[in-house]
Records
---
Amino acid sequence: MKIAAIIIFILTYVLLLALPRHRAKIAVTSATLFVVLGIIPIREVLTTIDWNVIFMIAGTMGLVSLFIDSKMPSLLADIIIEKTPNVMWAIVSLSLFAGIISAFVDNVATVLMVAPVALTICKKLGVSPISSIIAISVASNLQGAATLVGDTTSILLAGHLDMNFFDFFIYNGKIGLFFIVQVGAIMSTLVLFWIFRKEKQPVAALDKTVVTDYFPSFLLIAMVLLLIIASFIPNTPRTINGLICMALLLVGLVKSYVVNKDKKLIRNAVREIDYVTLLLLSGLFIVVGGISAVGVIEDIAALFVRISGDNLFLVYTLIVWFSVLISAFIDNIIYTATMLPVIGGIASLLGGDPTVLYFGLIIGATLGGNLTPIGASANIAGIGILTKQGFTVTTKDFTRIGVPFTLIAVLTGYILTWILFA
């Protein structure tokens, strides 16, 4: 059973990278094989899927559709074009903007909010949006590790170590993950400047768009605030973030129907939900859940513990870079949830402060997803947006930006975390 799971898993990810147009079909087919072969019992299929992520994507996509129809992204695009001298600065500014938002909102939601602005800018400038959306996605994924509410992996770490919101800023009297991530963001932004150094096409200020309805913008702001507030409330449902996004979408649809009397807006919002991306993520959750269920992740973790022995630096190095490698191909939520107790066991054997190992895990697992287009939900969401717009994103398109961006960010976090907490 384990060998069959490994073979299907490897084949799945090879096909996902090789056939970007058919990723949803591949993931769902592999998930079906896992169920048929009994690797994942059919009764556990629904619980294996992370419905919080699914609901959050669906709700935010609907909200973003209302946001686009309100003309607000077009206005923001006009403002950014007005403030930036060329395409390079416009792309980097958008990635920084996305990063700031992503520190306080789930990175998938951030991509879904900022991508329409990038699409509008690129359309007005007559350039391809592929590089812009990829830059936004990787920047969002990077900042997800900065705060308690930035990413599910941070929420998992906080629950395991009983950390509150402010522990991400100062932890045990030392600067926390937030500041470590910011240094990494600065270094990786320099990489973006280098990658886009030839994009010097001038941008011209245009007449500013008139916003037709500010209510969708208020709903998105409310979403940010509610997601932050929810992080402080104990014993909330696991799907609380997704429920917030879906509830706000419902409010927006009701308002469109009752106040605006505009059924077209409702149809557009429902149609703009990317059901293909939702199927892709659902399939991947089942596949990775199956791999975890048969013990493959634990086997690999046990192996590198035996290799490293009681050398803390070697253990830390293996955890960080192994996490980068694994998270490049499997969803980091399931991986992190699996590895947290493993890290606890390693720490108890080695003795001393385990913070360096826990932070190393989060840095590697969260940032590692930027190595490939399927390594993080934010990347999948960004590529899904481009696909709906008729653009094909190849693995080469993504890795041209994702690989150097990730290596610099992880290396920076790797060094700083060891200096501060070892």
---
Amino acid sequence: MLLNYIKIAWKVLLRHPFYTFITLFGISLTLTVLMVLTSFLDHLIGSHYPETKRDRTLYVMQMHLQDSSRTSSSNGPMSFKFLTDYAKSLKTAERVTITTFINSSNAYVGSQKIKLNTKFTDADFWQVTSFEFLEGKPYNEQNIANGDNVAVITDDFKKHYFENSSEPVVGKDVEIENIHYKVIGVVKASPVTRPFTYADVFFPYTAPKSNYQGTGMRGGYVAMILGKDKADLPAIQEEFQSHIDRIPLPIIQDGTKFAVMDVKSVPYLENFLGSILNGNPGMKAIFFGIIFFVLFMLMGLPAINLVNINVSRIMERASEIGIRKAFGAPIRTLMWQFIVENIFITFIGGAIALILTFIVIHLINTSGMIAYADLTINLYVFVISIVVCLLFGLLSGVLPALRMSKLNIAEALKS
């Protein structure tokens, strides 16, 4: 019986190609846009290479300072010394790494300038992150203690800097900002959308121009705190906050006296949203209102369109329903037929959307719009999207079908 319903559904779809096209277009476009956006959000905030441990990592990104009159404030990264004293000393954390954000540098191949993004890190950086080493190894505590001028480079920088990029380059020399470094390792590059780990070249924090010896509280460094387990994060946050609370106030920074200091260790999503989540209730309401509106535009309008099309399609088949009722078809059978038809067309639209999403994501990953992009399809969101479309499809098909199935046979045949 189910196979017969599917055959009927296929014939009905072929009967009105235009309606079929509009219906499939609405379903597939909605799902495609939703999945691409979700894939991009997952790319931004999900646990992906080389930050595969984000679910058990806390981020310390900035210090907020404010004077007692609330007229002067200072926001930004911290000094290496500050993070060493108050983050590295955590007992509940598995490991803590201190690193800079992205710095700009230049290298030259002949007369050609290569613009680089560089990063200064400690040795723990390579344990907290999950970089894939294509050659060599990371620098360690011994390299840092010795003050070695070594560097870890990405495979992309290797291609641009060395004439024969197919040969191993570990042990070779690179000159960056007129300083010579020995290549100690080559890693697979990370996307630019992950600022805690993105760079073309990584140096030990003892390398020249790192400014790690500053004695103030503000500087150019941030920290990532790795927990043994996700459940350990609240305890780590509590310990970190207790360290911060012990700092005597007021403090003097760059000649200004500050009476308020706020430094937080937060998961990546909260760190990513930052000022919105920490802002006033009005800002939160506006933000989530925008999110709701976007979701409504993506899912609501196509769903309403799908309802209208299904109502028109089913109303056109009043005479068919009348004939089937005249031959004794029960209401349950008629209802089941329309349910199967809606499920059938929804899954066709879902299959088209899946193919389109694969194509769009592949184009984004290979276009170079996002350096080293690695967008993937989130199958969980795809399934949820299919269920939502299916729900609207069922409602839009079942309700008119129930109405038509209750029509008097004579009235149905007149339609």
